Amino acid sequence: MTLLTSTNNSIPASSNSNRATGGLVVHAAWTRRSRSEAKKRPNRKSWKQRTDMFMRPFLLNVFFSKRFIHAKVMQRGTIKVISVASTNAKDLRTSLPSLVHENACRKIGALIAQRSMEADVFAMSYEPRKGERIEEALVLVTSGALSILLEHGM
């Protein structure tokens, strides 16, 4: 075995060392692919990623601000809004004493459930955003929607 020297240290040469770089061993990044290979085989989505929007087609989106509660049901495949309810609506602003407390949460849940049933929504799911906590207000909105759906046998 011979020694090939570089500027800083000596590295033993082996039969698979890269002599074009002066004896320094260059490690290839085996996880990367060339551009032509990436074009031939693009990254694939998993089975769950491909079928999730069809298994759970309707998504409940609830947003709480300091003054209002906004809720909407969206269809995942087409990103169309199916039903919307908000305490900022004119009829709710005048009828509710507080726009963010328990009664408002229950009312928004009931409105979302009724409007979703009118649009023939048979099931909906809720995914919390990254870092979002499940709070009491969110539980009240979903329980209000659930109670209306159970009354109508859905």
Automatic annotation (TrEMBL):
Pfam family, one: Ribosomal_L18p
Alphabetized UniProt keyword annotations: Ribonucleoprotein, Ribosomal protein
Cellular component annotations (GO), alphabetically ordered: ribonucleoprotein complex; ribosome
A single GO molecular function term of this UniProt record: structural constituent of ribosome
One example of a Gene Ontology biological process annotation: translation
Regions crossing the membrane: none
Family per record: Belongs to the universal ribosomal protein uL18 family.
Listed name of the protein: Ribosomal protein L18
Species the sequence originates in: Stephania japonica
